[in-house]
Design brief:
The chain is α+β, with helices and mostly antiparallel strands. It has one domain: 2-Layer Sandwich (YaeB-like fold). It contains three helices and four strands, in the order βαααβββ. The chain has helices spanning about 10-25, 30-45, 60; strands at about 5-10, 65-70, 75-80, 85-95. A four-stranded mixed beta sheet has the order 1-4-3-2. α1 packs antiparallel against α2 (about 30-45). The longest helix is centred in the first third of the chain and has 17 residues, at about 10-25. The protein is globular.
Amino acid sequence: MKRYTVVVTAEAQTGIRESFLYIFERSPENAAVWLQGLYNQIDTLERTPERCAYARERIYLDEDLRQLIYKSHRVVFCVDHKQSAVYVLHVRHGKRRAIGEQFDGDE
């Protein structure tokens, strides 16, 4: 089975840190469990990234983006088959608008 190198970008790390701090303010124990679980899920991308659905951002950014759902968050990533790498681009709460989506005033 093919293995991919998983790279978490700086922007994704920022999203993880912001989400962790938000959860930590409300429940330090839950934040630690959430963070460990998130990284465990991200690690699964090294074997089967194509199992994940396409991300909403795909229609706005003209990229082949996929998403992994973990609890209330979406892990948005792309797969580079030539480099055998998965790039985690964003970690965002599922209720946030897709990256590239324009605000239409109805929110």
